[in-house]
Amino acid sequence: MTAPKLKPCPFCGGNNLKIWDNSVECVNPDCGASGPDLGHCVGAKCRIEAIAAWNTRADTATWNAAIREAAELLGKAAKNQTPARAETVKACGRAILALLKEEKE
Q1: Which terminus in the chain has less CB density within 10 A, N or C?
Q2: Residue 65 to residues 62, 70, 105: CA-CA distances in angstroms?
Q3: How far apart are CA 52 and CA 49, in angstroms?
Q4: Which residue, 89, 4, 12, is CA-closest to 47?
């Protein structure tokens, strides 16, 4: 059974990936994402399952909804902060929404 090709890291886009028996790890020193962990699974079949799990991605609509929700939560959190801290929180929300806009373009 041939292992499927790995997709790049969903967080940094890197291809420097390590396949373990039960998970996949991005070994980019600035990232370090890993998972999903299949537990005590060992062997070639488990590596293929780990790759399939790594290659699973959230659909764009789900991802965009999560981004919008995070930005909205930051907006609500800003209301309970000092003015300086509130501006920082609002700036984070604007940055998140800007990423969503860039994704559409």
Answers
A1: C
A2: 5, 9, 17
A3: 5
A4: 4
Q: Select from 74, 72, 71, 54 the least CA-distant residue to 7.
A: 54
CA 3 – CA 34 distance, rounded (Å): 18
Instruction: Measure Cα distances from 15 to 23, 24, 26, 32, 52 in Å.
Output: 15, 11, 8, 12, 16
CA distances from 84 to 6, 23, 29, 56, 96 (A): 44, 42, 33, 40, 19
Taking only the tens place, the pLDDT of each residue in 8-49 is 998 888 999 999 988 999 999 988 889 888 888 888 888 889
Whether the predicted pLDDT of 76 surpasses 90: no
In contact, 46 and 61? CB cutoff 8 Å:
no
